[in-house]
Amino acid sequence: MTLLRPAAGALPQPYLLFLGDVAQPGYAKTAFGLRDWAPDQCIGEYRLPDAKVTTGLAYLTPAQAAAAGARSMVIGVANSGGVIPASWVASLMEALQAGLDLVAGMHSRLGDVPGLAEAATQLGRRLIDVRVPPANIPVGTGRKRTGQRLLTVGTDCALGKKYTALALARAFKARGIAADFRATGQTGIMIAGSGIPMDAVVADFEAGAAEMLSPDAAPDHWDVIEGQGSLFHPAYAAVSMGLLHGSQPDVFVVCHEPGRSEMLGAPGYGLPSIAELIEATLLLGRRTNPRIRCGGVAYNSSRLDADEAGRLIAADTERLGLPVADPIRGGPAFERLVESCLA
Amino acid sequence: MTLLRPAAGALPQPYLLFLGDVAQPGYAKTAFGLRDWAPDQCIGEYRLPDAKVTTGLAYLTPAQAAAAGARSMVIGVANSGGVIPASWVASLMEALQAGLDLVAGMHSRLGDVPGLAEAATQLGRRLIDVRVPPANIPVGTGRKRTGQRLLTVGTDCALGKKYTALALARAFKARGIAADFRATGQTGIMIAGSGIPMDAVVADFEAGAAEMLSPDAAPDHWDVIEGQGSLFHPAYAAVSMGLLHGSQPDVFVVCHEPGRSEMLGAPGYGLPSIAELIEATLLLGRRTNPRIRCGGVAYNSSRLDADEAGRLIAADTERLGLPVADPIRGGPAFERLVESCLA
Question: Does the structure's ipTM exceed the value 0.95?
Answer without folding.
Answer: no
